């Protein structure tokens, strides 16, 4: 390939290609298990690009998503000590 030639990489086409992602419309987190990932070519999943110009936000984004999921969890559930938990009275007094 000559230098300067523009290349379009159809990432969405690859992400929805049943050859790589069977039943592409189905929510299936197992597609991203280490075993499933090892069975397909590394470059068929490119949401953040690849190589020296890869998105710098990709790691940050996982932290943001993780934090949002954790906040959602805290809003929906009440967290309490279990019966067997020994509570440090000094630390507890700090929050009173
Ligand atoms: C769902 C969220 C995001 C997606 C899907 C996404 C995707 C991408 C893609 C495909 C590229 C081009 C990579 C390439 O040229 O090969 C890119 C570049 C970039 N992204 Fe993101 N991104 C996301 C979020 C973010 C966030 C949160 C930040 C900042 C914290 C960010 C900062 C950047 C920067 C600075 C570049 C340019 C990197 C470079 O050209 O050297 N992105 N992103």
Describe the structure.
- The protein has 96 residues and is mostly helical.
- The protein has one domain.
- The chain has 4 helices and no strands.
- It has helices spanning 11-15, 34-39, 57-76, 89-94.
- The longest helix has 20 residues, at 57-76.
- The radius of gyration is 22 Å and the shape is elongated.
- The model has no long low-confidence stretch (mean pLDDT 89).
- Protoporphyrin IX containing FE (HEM) is lined by residues 47-50, 53-57, 60-61.
Reconstruct the topology from this structure.
Layout: H1 11-15, H2 34-39, H3 57-76, H4 89-94
Bound molecules: protoporphyrin IX containing FE (HEM).
Helices and strands, in order, run as HHHH
Regions with pLDDT < 50 over 5+ consecutive residues?
A: none
Helix content estimate: 25-40%
What is the number of strand segments? 0
Domain module count: 1
Through-space gap between termini? 69 Å
Instruction: Work out the radius of gyration.
Output: 22 Å
Provide a short characterization of the protein structure.
The chain is 39% helix and 0% strand. With 96 residues, the protein is an all-alpha fold.
Keywords:
binds protoporphyrin IX containing FE; mainly alpha; about 100 residues
């Amino acid at each position: 390939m000559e230098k300067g030639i523009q290349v379009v990489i159809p990432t969405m086409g690859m992400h929805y290609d049943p050859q790589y992602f069977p039943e592409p419309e189905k929510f299936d987190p197992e597609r991203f298990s280490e075993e499933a990932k090892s069975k397909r070519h590394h470059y068929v999943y490119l949401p953040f690009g690849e190589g020296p110009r890869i998105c710098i936000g990709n790691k940050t984004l996982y932290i943001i998503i993780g934090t949002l999921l954790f906040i959602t969890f805290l809003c929906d559930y009440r967290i309490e000590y279990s019966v067997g938990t020994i509570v440090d009275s000094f630390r507890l007094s700090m929050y009173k």
